[in-house]
Amino acid sequence: MSRTQVEGLVAAIRPARTADLPALGDFFTGLSVQSRYLRFFSPITPGPSLLNLLCGGDGTTDALLATRDGVIIGHGMAADRSGACEARTTDIGVVVADAWQRQGLGSALVRALITGAQVRGVTTVTMDVMHGNDRALAMIKGHWPAARARRSRDYVTIHVQLADYRERQRPVLPARPCTRQSDAPAAAGRV
Prior knowledge:
This protein has helices at 21-30, 33-40, 48-54, 105-119, 134-143, 162-169, 184-189; strands spanning 2-6, 9-15, 61-68, 71-82, 88-96, 124-130, 148-151, 155-161. It has an eight-stranded mixed beta sheet, with helices on both faces. The radius of gyration is 17 Å and the shape is globular. Helix content is 34%, strand content 31%.
C-alpha cells in the first residue's frame, strides 16, 4: 500500500481485494450518473460479475483502490493483452468519486497503474475516453503530449508508448521496432 498526497489530499492507493466487493459496489452506486457514464460509456451500476472483474477477480486485471479513512474514493484498473510482435499492452480505466475529482487523484491512480504495468513488461497503454470528457483528455495530454489518438464516433482511443513515459522520468534506450513481415501492415494502419 502506498500513500499519495495530492494538493493536500492524503489517500492510500492499494490493490483491490475480494473483501472489498461490498464497498466497491457502494462506491460505484454513489457515483453520479455522469461519472458512471464517463467510466463505463453507460450509466450502469455494476452488478456482481462486473464488480468481481473490477476487483481483479479474473486474475488478469490489476485493480487498485484509492481510499481515505477506509472509504473508497477512487478506482483504477489495467487489463493486459498481447499485441503485435509479442508486445504487451494494457487498457486502463479510472474513476474518482465526484467529491474528490479535480484534486489529482485520477492522475495518481494512472501513475500507479503504469508503474505496475511496467513491472509486468507492458510497452503500450491504451485508454478509451468519451468525447466531452475534457478533464481526462487534458490530463492525458499533459502527461503524454506525444500520445497518439484515434477518434471514433463515440470516444477517443489514446495510445501511449511507455518508453515515452519513462523518457520523461529518466533516459532509456528506445525499443527495437518490430520488423516481422506479417505485422508490418497491421502496425502501419494503427493510429
